[in-house]
Structure formats: structure tokens, C-alpha cells
Amino acid sequence: MDLTFSEQETSFRDELRDWLAENPPVPRPVEGGDDAQLAWRRDWQRRLYEGGWAAPHWPVEYGGRGATPTESAIYFEEIGRARVPMAANILGLLLGGPTLMAWGTPEQKERYLEPILSAEEIWCQGFSEPDAGSDLASLKTRAVKRGEEWVVSGQKVWTSAAQHAKWCMLVARTDVDAEKHKGLTYFLMDMEQDAVQVRPLRQITGEAEFNELFIEEATIPDANVVGGAGNGWKVALTTLMNERAGLGFALQIRLRQLLDDLIAIAAERGLMADPLHADSLAELHVRCESIRLLAWKGLTDVERYGQPGPEGSLVKWLWSETNQRLTQLAVDIVGPEAMTGGTSWSYELLRARGNTIEGGTTEVLKNIVAERVLGLPRLKAAA
Amino acid sequence: MDFGLTDDQRDIKRTARELLGERSRPERVRELAETGRTDEALWRELSDLGWPGIAVAEEHGGLGLGCLELTILCEELGRALAAVPFLPTTMAAGLIELAGSPRQRERWLPGFARGELTGALAAAEDGGAELVIGGADADVIVLVYEDRTARALTPAECELVPIASIDPTRSAARVSASLDAGEELADDVAGGVDRALVAISSELVGVCDRALELTLAYVKERRQFGVPVGSFQAVSHRCAQMLLDTEKARANTAFAAWAADADPERLAEAAAMAKAAASDAGREVTASAIQAHGGIGFTWEADVHWLYKRAQLDAALLGSAPRQRARVATILTERAARLAVPQLQ
């Protein structure tokens, strides 16, 4: 056991820290709405790209640094710590790129990877549907081959960044007679066509992070199939596995910062002398450190033994519940400001409700832990 | 960064698991518990193997290994509910080694390392302690005071009344002594107490691990409504929670053991966090084990209650979870004083 970074990892971290210190992002625009926010994030990713820091976890041949999993985690920790904007094409960097590297043709890699890195093209993920959430493989969006292209109709939901995206990672049913997991195909769908309508979904925070996609006879060239027709479930799993890998470290640091902010406020108001507040904050600290330790343990076990331990499934579950507890406690500590619209604490409180739903509900995560980690008998569900 | 064990450490773990699987079977633990005896034969065997001295320096007759190796044994002994005074003896030895004078170390440590002497450690209130685990048979009782001093007492130097705790796999005693009885340890005991917290935490991790293992076996086997009860989410999600609590405790305990050996400046915070997480996990996970066993879990015949009882005593030992969180809060408050207050938007 050695819970320190190697010399190589330390110098990776220091190089990144130096770069971030020398290249601070411009302040967040206060006016101009969604478009201005996007332009700001796009500009930031462009600077990361030019500095060679857009996706260090990508192999060198595709424009990354070939960072090890540990270095990659250090990257997301440092990015989180520096409180810089989220890269505009985060879904392309984390999900789309790695999926193409695993399944794409040489032509697809040549065509798509560079614009992902530079944020020239933004990506979104068209997986979930109104009737296919946790039970993703039951999705109904249909794609039918017609000559050299596919014609797609259906509806997708919870599609982040769809309003800005050029490309959608779309999973659609291409064989209705095949078994549920086998009749799916993974496509790259051009979002810039009239057959694809994007309607923003207003969340409980009032903002619209997600969208609904209404797809009516959209066309996709056959060359945009990823991983072969009928192989969509396997390709989608690659995307989903990448979803939990990197972002966890950035989220963990964000939680740490919120907790540090809250402790500072509590200390300044003399509330650390209140044993109930002190106990709650200390418990959050233990949880926060547990998330950090479990995340690192999960990562280094994969690195060392090639096998993930049970930690991966536990980290997201623990993180989401901890963030909800923290933002709820903030209402008691910060007071009315945390219930006043437009404040950051009120935003965090409301946004946190989504944490136990997005990216795998807590209920589904518990099923995964029970079945795959603990080997409990599978729940019998209707076919 | 690497959370893995070395080959040697894995060997220690495997050897301990195998040996205790043979010697400390559930029926053996039950027999001892029901007759209120500790396992003297097992203690002799472990002593011959050098276990009690695993973390005692070689110059004092120990194996000179670290806190990490000690926690490996504590975890395995906790898993097996071994009826031996390992935890109290190594806690007392650790404190004397860290805070004792050269003469005090020379006086006690070789005996502890060989298992010829057994020890006990407890937090003192008004010169005594109501519940000293291992106290009834201990040759040396170390009482730790609020001001970070400690005194080592022989049974002749204090009033020692054996008591029957709810955990009959270990002896217990009420100890009272005058404030100048025995001898005061030479140095600050804080580091030694923190190492003891790590040892207790690792025993709790072992107890949790075993409770989950027994529960999983039961809910996979027990059928109601035509299916194993473990297929019901009300049961399976409880088991998932048991795993989360156990892994949280395990990760914090591993970090604290590492800090004790490699980064002592972080030990105080790490030990408090580990003991908080492990105390909560110990109570919750063993309680869940009883619940998931249904009616049978509440009977004397099922083995889960021994785990619940061990967890109760360990969770309270040297300060329960709220006490540890209060320590953490103090550390956080000091740290916050060095941070700027963020502007509310």
C-alpha cells in the first residue's frame, strides 16, 4: 500500500497546475444566456486543446497524452480544483471519442476525433427514451435500412447538449425480431436536419440542461454505423462504462469544495460550536473522504489487477446521497439565502435531487451491487 | 498510488484466514462463549507464531512490522470472533511502545510480544473504567486520561472486578484505581491511542465482513413465496447497504493504517474518521444481519448475535462514532480558520 503519487504522476500534476495557473479562463459571462455560456465553454476547451490538455486520457496518436488511469484521475481532480468551466464537448471527450477508438473504422476515427478535441463539433448522447430509462435495452426508436442509408424515427429524452450538438450517439432498434439486446445498432446521427427536433426540458432548477429529441424519418448514412449493425448494445456499454470512469473524480472534488465552503460559513457564524451542526459536517467530511478513497481504490485496483473491485458501483451511489445531504444541511447553515432564487446554494439544493436519478438511479445501482457484486439472485422482471 | 497488499502482507492474511478457519470455528466460539472462557490453546498457538508481537519492535522481542500488518490480523480475528485477548494486548503494547520510557518498554514489551503477558486498554473516568475489555485476565491495564497521559497498572495496583459483558467471547472487568496508582507512561499518548483506534476499526471491519457473508449465505438459501428471499429488493438492497457501510469502513481504516506507518501527521484525523466509519458500520451491519435472518436471527442458536455483541463493545471502545466526529469537527474548524469565507452570490 502506498497512498502517494509517483514521481511521474507528481510531475504530471505539477505541469498541469502550472498550465492552469498561467492560463486562467475568462470570467463566466453574466449576460447573453445559453449561447454566451456555450461560447465561453467552447473557448475554454479550445484553449485546453491548443495547450494539449483537452483529453490527456486519449492515446497520443489521437491527440491525447496517453495518460495512465491515475494521471487521468489527477487531471479531473485538478480540473475540478481549479474551478474552470466544463469543456463544451464533454460528452464527446469522455464518451464519444473513447467509443469510436474502441469500435470505429479508421475513416470514422480520422473524420470525427479531431473536431471532438477542439470542440469544433459538439456531441450528445441519444440513449434514454420515455419508456426506456433504467431498462435501456427496451428502447423503441426504429431505424430501417433504405439503400445506402438508414431512416430513423422515434423519441429520445434526457439528451444533454442536444441544442448545441452536431452529432448524436444514437442507439436504435434495427431488428424487431431479434432478442431485445441483439436487435440494436449504434449510429452517429447528424443533428443538423429538419427531421430532428430538439425541445428543451425545463428542470426543477428552472434551467434546461436536458432536451427531448423528436426524430421523424431522419436519415443516417450507412457509413455512420459504429461497431456494425446489430451490435449496438455492446457499443453502448463501452459508452456507458466510460460515463462513470472520468467524471467521478471531478464530481468528487466539486463535492469537496462545496463542503469546504459550507464548513467555512459554519465556522464564521460560530456554528461549529453547535454539536449537532459539527456532527453533521464531520459526518459529511467522513463521507467525502470515503468517496475519494473508494474512487482511488477502485481505479488503482483496475490499474494493478485489471479487475475492478466493488468500489465503482458504490462511489456514484455514495456521492449522490452525500451531495443531497450536504446541500440540504446548507439550508440550515446558510439560512434563507439558500432558499432564495438565483443563489448558488439554492441552485445546488435543487440540482442535487437529480443526482440519485441521472447516470443510473440509486435503486438500479443497488440492484447492480446486489446481483453482480454480492451474487444475489436476480430479480424476476416481466419479459 | 496503490491500495494493494504486498506479497508478504497477503501471506499474513491468507495464513491467518486459514488458521482461524480451522481453530476458531463457529461451534468452538459458541462453546467458549457459553462457558465464559477464552481460548487459551489458541492464544498459546498464536503466541508461538509471534502474532501478539507483530507490531512490537524487534529489540523488544517482536516482529517489528507495521500498523498495516497489525490491522490484517485484527480484521481476521474479528471475522473469526476469536476468543483471545489479541486486541486488548496489542493496544496496550502499542501504547507502551509509543509513550513508555525505555525502562517501561523493557519491563512490559517482551512479555507482550511472546504472549506471556496480556494487556488491556481503556479510557479512564475519575481514575477508573466501567468496562475494560480483556481486563479480567490482564497482567497490565493501561488507563488513558483526558489530558493525554496514561498509567500502567498491575492487577495488584487497582481494584478489579470481573463483569459479564454482553460479549462473552472476551473477558471484561470494572477497574478502579487511585490517580497515582501504578506508573505514568513517560510521553504523550495521543499517537498510541490513535493506533489503537485503527486496530479496533479493523476488527470491526472483520466483524462486518463476516456478518455480510453469513447474511448472503442465508438469504440465498432461505426461500419464501417460492423464491430465495435475497431476490426481494427489500432484502437485497439492505445487503447492498451492508456492503457500502463495510467498504466505507474498510477504506478509511486502510488509509489510517497507512498513515500510522507512512504519514503520522495525518494519523489523528484518519484514525478518528476510521473509528467513526467503523463504529457506525459495526452497529448497522450486524443489526442488518439479524434483521435479514428474520426470526432465526433473533434466536440464540443463530451465530449473528455474537457479531452484533462484539460490534457493540468495539464501537464504544475508546470513543464511539459521535465522539470521533467531534474530534474531526475540531480539526475541520481549525482548518477552516485558515480558509477564506466564500462570497455568497
Strand content of chain B: 5-15%
Total helices of chain B: the number is 11
Compute the CA-based radius of gyration of chain A.
Answer: 22 Å
Q: Strand-residue fraction of chain A?
A: 5-15%
Return the domain count of chain A.
3
CATH topology of the largest domain in chain B: Butyryl-Coa Dehydrogenase, subunit A, domain 1
Structure description:
- The complex is a heterodimer of chains A (383) and B (345).
- With 383 residues, chain A is α+β, with helices and mostly antiparallel strands.
- Chain A folds into 3 domains: 7-88, no CATH class; 123-232, Butyryl-CoA Dehydrogenase, subunit A, domain 2 (Beta Barrel); 246-373, Butyryl-CoA Dehydrogenase, subunit A, domain 3 (Up-down Bundle), CATH 1.20.140.
- Chain A is built from 11 helices and 8 strands.
- Chain A is globular.
- Chain B is globular and about 65 Å long.
- Chain B has 2 domains: 7-184, Orthogonal Bundle (Butyryl-Coa Dehydrogenase, subunit A, domain 1); 190-336, Butyryl-CoA Dehydrogenase, subunit A, domain 3.
- With 345 residues, chain B is α+β, with helices and mostly antiparallel strands.
- In chain B, a hairpin with a 5-residue loop joins strand 3 (140-144) and strand 4.
- In chain B, the strands form 3 sheets. In chain B, strands 1-3-4-7 form a 4-stranded mixed beta sheet, with helices on one face. Chain B has a 3-stranded antiparallel beta sheet with strand order 2-6-5, with no helix packed on it. In chain B, strands 8-9 form a two-stranded antiparallel sheet.
- Chain B is built from 11 helices and 9 strands.
- The chains are: A alpha+beta (383), B alpha+beta (345).
- Chains A and B meet through helix 7, helix 8, helix 9 and helix 11 of A and helix 7, strand 9, helix 8, helix 9 and helix 11 of B.
Keywords, separated by commas or semicolons:
heterodimer; A: 383 residues; Butyryl-CoA Dehydrogenase, subunit A, domain 2; 3 domains; 4-stranded mixed β-sheet; 14% strand; globular; B: 345 residues; Butyryl-CoA Dehydrogenase, subunit A, domain 3; 2 domains; 3-stranded antiparallel β-sheet
